[in-house]
Amino acid sequence: MEHIISGVAKFQKEVYPSKKAAFQKLANGQNPEVLFFTCADSRIDPNLVTQTEPGELFICRNAGNIIPPHSNQTGGMTASIEFAVAALGVSHIIICGHSDCGAMKGAINTEGLSSLPHVKEWLGHSRVATEVVKEKCGCAELNNNDHLGLVIEENVVQQLQHIKTHPAVAAKIATGQVKLHGWVYDIESAEIKTYDEATGSFKPVEDTDVETLAKQSK
Fold first, then answer.
1. Cα Rg for the chain, rounded, in angstroms?
2. Hey, is 8 helix, strand or coil?
3. Of 63, 83, 140, 215, which is most buried by a Cβ count within 10 Å?
4. CATH number of the domain enclosing 59
């Protein structure tokens, strides 16, 4: 904890003074452009990866970057989605998975989660991803090393489908006010792949048409 406390002191003395005006403005409200969903994994830092400042991303995190389908039962993810879209008016939603995801390893091998019943139940929201990969690979079971990357990608695709079931999101998508983006971040290389719905595949973000991205950001 010592480096955490010293970090706070450094922030207050060295970082805050140079950004004081921005923080004073943020003290009275927020207007983020992006709702950013990612895993709770400690190796993922959304602001670092996207080089964004406080106030630019509305961030939601959980094990496996999972978004349960909409239901009448209120949960933290459901409430956060509704608030970000209907109240804050975000115009983009990014769902970002990542390499070496422990949650997806658990989704592949649920038998190893007997001592973690709540984790096992939560990862049920990723079952479609594992089943799709099994079907595509033509195998009854998945091997962690061979199929983890495929499950990580497919999980992002399935969570994109789940978020479309939320009324606030569906309404904004229908009127062109919200756009969805699926990402997979590689921790070792810093590469980000983005989901291309037209081809049903992921490709490096630097290969994406820059003009298209610019239009989507307007």
1. 19
2. helix
3. 63
4. 3.40.1050.10
What's the CA angle centered on 133, arms 80 and 208, to 5 degrees? 65
Cβ neighbour number for residue 209 with a 10 Å cutoff: 8
26/211 Cα distance (integer angstroms): 31
Separation of CA 148 from chain center: 17
Residue 208's Cβ-count burial label (10 Å; 0-12, 13-18, 19+) is: middle
Backbone angles phi, psi at 98, to 5 degrees: -155, 160
Residues in the chain: 218
Residue 26 covered by a domain: no
State the pLDDT at residue 208: 56
Phi/psi-derived region of residue 199, left when phi > 0, alpha when psi is between -120 and 50, beta in every other case: alpha
Determine how many CB atoms are found less than 10 A away from the CB of residue 131: 13
Amino acid found at 19: K
**Of the candidates 163, 193, 167, 165, the residue with the CA atom closest to the CA atom of residue 180:** 163
* Per-residue pLDDT, 72: 85
Domain of residue 137: give its range.
Answer: 32-216
Amino acid at 32: P
